[in-house]
Amino acid sequence: MHQFTIAEIIRGLRDKQFSSVEITRHLLDRIQQLDSNYNSFITVTGEMALAQAAAADQRLAAGEAPALCGVPIAHKDIFCTSGVRTSCGSRMLDNFVPPYDATVVEKFNSAGSVTLGKTNMDEFAMGSSNESSYYGPVKNPWNTDCVPGGSSGGSAAAVAALLAPGTTATDTGGSIRQPAAMTNTTGLKPTYGRVSRWGMIAFASSLDQAGPIARNAEDCAYLLSAMAGHDDRDSTSLNRPEQDYTLNLNDSITGLKIGVPKEYFGEGLSTDVAARVQDALNEFEKLGAELVDITLPHTDLAVPAYYVIAPAEASANLSRFDGVRYGHRCDDPKDLRDLYMRSRGEGFGDEVQRRILVGTYALSAGYYDAYYNKAQQVRRLIKQDFVQAFEKVDVIMGPTAPSPAFGLGEKKSDPVAMYLEDIFTIATNLAGLPGMSLPCGLVNHMPVGLQIIGNYLEEARMLNIAHRYQQVTDWHKVSAPSIAEAAATEGE
Ligand SMILES: NC(=O)C[C@H](N)C(=O)O
């Protein structure tokens, strides 16, 4: 049952091939048996999942269940879950049990989906390898000596290891797309404001956006349909009607104009990755699309601008963790200053502290204009690059990440090398555009992701484009070797 996609689970539940309790129990057993190899979950909510599954089975029997009713999923541990610890991958929140659900979680709960647990992540979503988690690194199911990408590495690995058919994730500078690329999963970062940020622990509020990771575009469409929608509790939530993103998946893409930015194929890109992406572009030509050379001239400024803006916003957002109201509190503080210093010093890991320092510096008097204002000006130029490109083309395509998954520990002590992982994904966040990653081939037995960047609010079109590609290719169906091996030994 663990091989089933979300679309297959929806059909199977409706046709009474299996119940929600059966598939939920099966996946919980798998998580218990296998996740020690991957560490993709921080918390498994077995009892709650089975109760939700039983309730979903009743709704299904009554014949009035929404699409995702009874479908087991898992949430990134950045989404607040009522009564269930929400750690954000940090010691700071190791003891935090929220009294409420994030809007995203609330929406899935009312759609009747089942929560298997909370997935591992880089601490406060800061990282591209999942090595900064307080709960230990996540291992890539394709090669457990390699990282799964980050920060949503647990969400991506859980899907790749067939422990959950779909997961929620967040993307501030690539955190959905880069792990999706490294684990052969499909991930979508929607337009900024499409999905509510309420109850999603804030990293960089002008960039943070939630989205799904699943085995294919069709499943992402189901998940996005449940997640997206206006929310009064998030002031940047877009006031657009909810829609069914599965409706246009089969539309023709003949005549589609695909922009291919020359800056995405230059320095830093592995030639093998470039070749797999080129294969995918050729496939799109066969489907009737036209490739158009474009330029996004400010691409090389995206990483430097992001690493001023994101830490600046993070330094403000994370100031709420003071050891007074909730979260980690040091033992026997001498005075208030000692309480702040030791609670924050002990509660936050190295990467989080580095970003708070960088952000505080960039915002401080005398440096604000030189760094923060400059970065905001660069952000505008990057956005204009895209606006101009979308006058000529319908979508943009290129690699998601410069190379396949790297070894655990390989970039841990070199923050700049780690930051360059997001060289192709960050500009999308700065511009607020939607971006996707989908499997497009292997290099040395490790997956490669194709990135699709759409114009504002074009998620349905992007999912349609990705789905058409997945109808004529099988890359997304290839299982991680560790799964294939396990299946062989079980004699399945
Ligand atoms: N949160 C993200 O989107 C990940 C990005 N690599 C960062 O460390 O900021």
From TrEMBL:
Catalysed reaction equations from the record: L-glutamyl-tRNA(Gln) + L-glutamine + ATP + H2O = L-glutaminyl-tRNA(Gln) + L-glutamate + ADP + phosphate + H(+)
Entry superkingdom: Bacteria
Keywords from the named record: ATP-binding, Ligase, Nucleotide-binding, Protein biosynthesis
Enzyme superclass (EC): ligase
InterPro entries assigned to the protein according to its UniProt record, in alphabetical order: Amidase (IPR000120), Amidase_CS (IPR020556), Amidase_dom (IPR023631), AS_sf (IPR036928), GatA (IPR004412)
Family: Belongs to the amidase family. GatA subfamily.
HAMAP family, alphabetized: GatA
Quaternary structure and interacting proteins, as annotated: Heterotrimer of A, B and C subunits.
Function: Allows the formation of correctly charged Gln-tRNA(Gln) through the transamidation of misacylated Glu-tRNA(Gln) in organisms which lack glutaminyl-tRNA synthetase. The reaction takes place in the presence of glutamine and ATP through an activated gamma-phospho-Glu-tRNA(Gln).
Protein name, entry field: Glutamyl-tRNA(Gln) amidotransferase subunit A
Species of the source: Microbulbifer taiwanensis
